[in-house]
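Hey Z.,

So I finally got round to the phenylalanine thing we talked about over coffee. Here's the setup:
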Amino acid sequence: MSEKRSSFTGKVGFVMAAAGSAVGLGNIWRFPYLAAKYGGGIFLLVYIIIAVTFGYALMSAEIAIGRKTSLSAIGAFRQLDKRFGFIGYLASVVPIIILPYYSVIGGWVGKYVAAFCTGQAHAAASDGYFTAFTSAPVEPLIWFCVFIGITAVIVLLGVDKGIEKVSKIMMPILVALTLFVAIYTACMPGAWEGVLYYITPDFNKFSATTVLAAMGQLFYSMSLAMGIMITYGSYMKKDVDLESAVSQIEIFDTGIAFLAGLMVIPSVFVFSGGNEEALGQGPGLMFVTLPKVFDNMTGGSFIGAAFFILVLFAALTSSISLMETIVSIFQDKLHVGRKMSCLIVLGICLLLGVPSSLGKGIWNDITIFGMDFFDFCDFISNSVIMPIVAFLTCIFVGYIIKPQALVEEIEGSSAFRRKKLFIVVIKYIAPVCIVLILISSILDTLGIVTI
Ligand code: PHE
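And the result:
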């Protein structure tokens, strides 16, 4: 990646690249199923509050750290204070855990593209199709290998610029199509109840786990707490308005997640009733409900095919940025060439991706703390390591290098209207909240106490 340093020409280039990494399966697949599971409106509300406070402060801090040091995570923390290089290492573990299972879902999307393109749209909408596919021993593995293989080839050939160009055209179409599907779904009989479930907060459903899930999702969706935004910041020119770039990425990312929820959740009400079980399905939600919506539409197989192709592109831009990050870390730390580094990453992905995929099928009964391997990878990265990295980053910025060091960096290019908010969140609110939520939710998950 080093040859790309400071290659973003201006704010638009930076925002587009960062948004390409941020917008992906997290927004379209993960956000709706979490919102459905954690009470709809209350999850949405908590998410938005966290996005404009924690999300804003943390993203500004990470990009500013990167721009100030012109280094990626590991080097950046070390340069600012020798004793804290370990935060960079910890952050770097996250993409390694995420990429394998991310590719499993990428593979699922690939399967749905193929199904919709080969006239199996109706079959894909039938009950049990998704479970039959994901629990089969071989087929999901093949799709997983195809997805990770494409990602690796693009990273290896360095043709990600081409992909990014294509996705710049695809992304706006994806937004338009998502909006169309959301409106279509909302107009179906029974959907309104789902829309209300999604936008009206029910405070009885509030718990520490809701907050932790929303926080994990925020980090995941905005590619925070894993060193990625630090790397992107290191490529950002000094005169690009950092504050407004952060606002734009946040609005874009949250906007797409919101639309995806609006598309998926009401369709759960239309097709499966709004009962707890249907809402709490988890990772399969989008794959189960959307084909039913498409099956109901005139021209639905065409629209469905277009939709899954666009999602596949969004997923690829994200998986490429994940793999690129890991490859460059291994290149630097293990002193190996790019090809070798790519191969090592591919090996790790296969090693962790295969059990993730099988965890949804024949290895379903092999569990860690009650979770299959897929869910465990998701939990340990989003709900444990990322909050810890975020906490350490706040302590590091708030008390070690002091917020002023980054305020100066940001003020170099921006009016920094939300400076006070930045300082208060980084120093006090974020660290306290993260610790409380992390502890209570881990105890809860391990079944020690229920809060
Ligand atoms: N933010 C991406 C998404 O929402 C996932 C991702 C995380 C991508 C980290 C790159 C790096 O899907």
